[in-house]
Amino acid sequence: MTTAAQQGANVYPPNAETVARAHVDADKYTKMYEASIKDSDAFWGEQGKRIDWIKPYSQVKDVSYNFGSVGINWYADGTLNVSANCLDRHLKARGDQTAIIWEPDDPNDAAQHITYAELHRRTCRMANILESMGVRKGDRVVIYLPMIPEAAYAMLACARIGAIHSIVFAGFSPDALAARVNGCDAKVVITADEAPRGGRKTALKSNADAALLHTKDSVKCLVVKRTGGQTTWVSGRDYDYNEMALEAGDYCAPAEMNAEDPLFILYTSGSTGQPKGVVHTTGGYLVYAAMTHEITFDYHDGDVYWCTADVGWVTGHSYIVYGPLANGATTLMFEGVPTYPDASRFWQVCEKHKVNQFYTAPTALRALMGQGNEWVEKCDLSDLRTLGTVGEPINPEAWNWYNDVVGGGRCPIVDTWWQTETGGHLMTPLPGAHAMKPGSAMKPFFGIEPVVLDPQSGVEINGNGVEGVLCIKDSWPGQMRTVWGDHERFEKTYFSDYKGYYFTGDGCRRDEDGDYWITGRVDDVINVSGHRMGTAEVESALVAHAAVAEAAVVGYPHEIKGQGIYCYVTLMNDREPSDDLLKELRVWVRTEIGPIASPDVIQWAPGLPKTRSGKIMRRILRKIAENDFGSLGDTSTLADPSVVEDLIENRAGK
Ligand code: WT7
């Protein structure tokens, strides 16, 4: 059989200029990859030198994937400070270089250029403020901020004093915020008066006020002034950042941290239960974030790099803040949205700041693609060199548009597959090394051994042209270490179904050329606009409403969002379906979780398809949501097969 690559169909090799410039070309990739697998200690021992250590490590990897005793340690006897790596070590050579370009929501407001020297000062002041509020090494600090430079100061300040930050995306509701503050027993919440986004303002401080009603009384709140909007002030609990920053000292000594001390906790959705706190540690995480940032995007000194994510997600942690700053890069931080004031905003910002590497999500590309090419074409994008996507599979139409219209056919597209859990990219084409295929994550990064397993037997499927569940054979430095406060859940989620492997939760296909294609989640996690959502979370929000007896939530294909949220709702006996109730439930879910969890479709379901033992058959619900009634499979094991007919008959939007 001839392969796609042999036929030359839909394969996009890098141009000569890209190859010549690239840190890694095809040859180097092959050699380095082989070396990374053959002797991973030697490989990662060398890569560890990318960052500065206070006390150098003598051991590299110490990992057990054995269920019951999973332990992941990298550079375990080394000590370092992450903020010193992102700041202090650059001061001599690049104190006056811009570290962060901040582009505000309103294009008529001035952008800020924050130098490494300034970022160092600001971080130190924030660190001193936190210390004055009683934050000590190992304490948790929740950050609930808009995309403003203070979010970076706060992250780096925590890292500086050894506090563990947990960022909560500013789009989450007070309830979700409270759950996370309580989940990690945070001492301080850092927030802002308001978050401007797309010309609208979210009242962050009042959300925080509402959340803090449901936390310990001792939790303090540090408030950054962003808009100057009115806020309620609780004296003794609330601290004024801007006022304190005037007094705070410009220097704070970086704490000496062990490589395996936690750097941050980031809550993410799973297939069951409430979100879990993914824990990343300092040494290995930073090595991996720095290395992938440099190589995946082919970042070179002096480049301007822009990742459009929010720091509330792992992408913002690794690829707005830690990776770029560890590399002494200029990283752009954008407060706004792609379509404000109009659909040209991304490209205006690229032109204005002469962006070289641009990293965004397919959902944004799909939305912008629909607005027409003129929004892109009127901007000068000649500085763009590498384009990246992340968060969900990219469909070929969006890929081609990105390649042709945005990249002018000159820029490699790195389709980076990774997860909150992985800390950094695990699979991606590299700009100068791989011929890209639209929609394929292509090749593993150095040190990563992907395996395709048979979902039932758990046996590795070898060879090419195969499909199954995606696991990773061995560890890498950026891997999560545990679930905060629940190591058992960590082992159960990632190491129990397929023993001896890290289970990703994704399905994948290895094509005839040996290139990887992510086929989507194999669990009850859905991906809405690149945001990860547990269907169980939406269900539990729905059943918390007094009118709802039962709910089942599945994903369905959505043109812009990738996946939409489809809810089947069974009402209490005394309640009748109505448009008002439908609206009420939508608002309810938004308040329980946040706008990102807003149901796209709610279908009234007099009954749900269950097995005789009472298990909801989601497979059938997914098919109905997908409008694919022909392949419902065997329904004979259902307790009451007639409910399926009713659901089909009354499918929402039919
Ligand atoms: C899930 C992880 C990684 C940072 C943002 C999302 C899906 C991620 C891709 C990609 C296809 C992708 C997977 C993964 N995903 N990147 N390039 N192609 N699918 O992080 O919220 O932890 O979600 O996003 O399903 O498991 P996350």
UniProtKB/TrEMBL annotation:
Residues engaged in binding Mg(2+): 543, 545, 548
Catalytic activity: acetate + ATP + CoA = acetyl-CoA + AMP + diphosphate
UniProt superkingdom: Bacteria
Sequence similarity: Belongs to the ATP-dependent AMP-binding enzyme family.
Keywords: Acetylation, ATP-binding, Ligase, Magnesium, Metal-binding, Nucleotide-binding
Name of this chain's protein: Acetyl-coenzyme A synthetase
Annotated ATP binding sites: 391-393, 415-420, 506, 521, 532
An MF annotation (GO) of this entry: acetate-CoA ligase activity
Organism of provenance: Ruegeria meonggei
Record function comment: Catalyzes the conversion of acetate into acetyl-CoA (AcCoA), an essential intermediate at the junction of anabolic and catabolic pathways. AcsA undergoes a two-step reaction. In the first half reaction, AcsA combines acetate with ATP to form acetyl-adenylate (AcAMP) intermediate. In the second half reaction, it can then transfer the acetyl group from AcAMP to the sulfhydryl group of CoA, forming the product AcCoA.
Modified how: Acetylated. Deacetylation by the SIR2-homolog deacetylase activates the enzyme.
Name of encoding gene: acsA_3
Cofactors required: Mg(2+)
Residue numbers of N6-acetyllysine PTMs: 615
